[in-house]
Amino acid sequence: MGRSISQIIPQLARPLPRRGAMPWLALARTAVAVVLLLAWESLGRMVPDLIAGPLPTLLRLVELVHSGEIVPMVWVTVLETVGGLAIGAGFGVVLPFLVQMSPRLSAVIEPFARAAVGIPKLALSPILIMWFGIGLTSKIALVALMTFFLVFVATFVGIRSVGPNLIRTVAIFGAGKVEIAREVFWNSSQPFVWAALRAALPWAINAALVGEFLAAENGIGYYIHHSYNMADITGVYAGMVITAALVLLADAVLRLFQRRALAWRPDNSATSLH
Question: Are 257 and 249 in contact (CB under 8 A)?
């Protein structure tokens, strides 16, 4: 009885250990990357008017780096993505905890929350641009809408996944409602939250780009759309490569935060995508 609730919960909720990534995984991924590059090069040679090959795309990226043009465009898109993700995910995590305090309210809201996930948020982008203008605000609002429902539903499911036996067990140790919410519901729902965040991240970046396609003065999406209007196919592919690199980098950063947040688990590889 000398241990605190925060020391007891990780032991009650600990998952079965799993093995980490196999040694051949990096080799296999490298092989796949090489095959994709070769296929890209072949298609670029076959239809050069529609597909820019890897070398012209790389040269354009080097040009963007040397000119410094890549910095402001990436910075704008990152601001839109991070701002929208922080707002959408923040409300998506907090609101389920408020809703779960009332079982009746939870039962009323759940079907509407699930149905709202299917609403095409990208279709709302012209309306948001009309409301908030062509600046950062409209893109942040679009990203927030795109990510809110995904995180909300995932957090809601994570809270609902907590078994009553676990709640009764920690209550026996003297846990109050606040401790149960923090140590049981939060710790149990964290894997769901992080999985939702990593799933929502590409959608958040794409939402920012869609907003930039429609109306913007800078950003990766603006560069891609401008290149398309100028029939600059190499610029379009360079923008696509920058976007893909941004998604990979952002996912790596998010995975690092995930590992730190789930460090209390004996093996958090079970809750992360390698």
Answer: no
pLDDT in tens, 166-224: 666 666 666 566 666 666 667 777 888 888 888 889 989 998 998 888 887 888 999 99
Write the CA distances from 163 to 95, 169, 188, integer angstroms.
20, 10, 10
- The pLDDT tens digits of the residues spanning 92-120 come to 888 887 777 677 777 777 777 777 777 77
End-to-end CA distance of the chain: 38
Amino acid letter, residue 13: A
Q: Which two tokens stand for residue 22?
A: 């196999």
Is residue 37 situated within a structural domain? no
Counting the structural domains of the chain, the total is: 1
Give me the CATH number covering residue 203: 1.10.3720.10
Cα separation, 26 vs 231, whole angstroms: 37
Find the domain containing 182 and state its range: 55-271
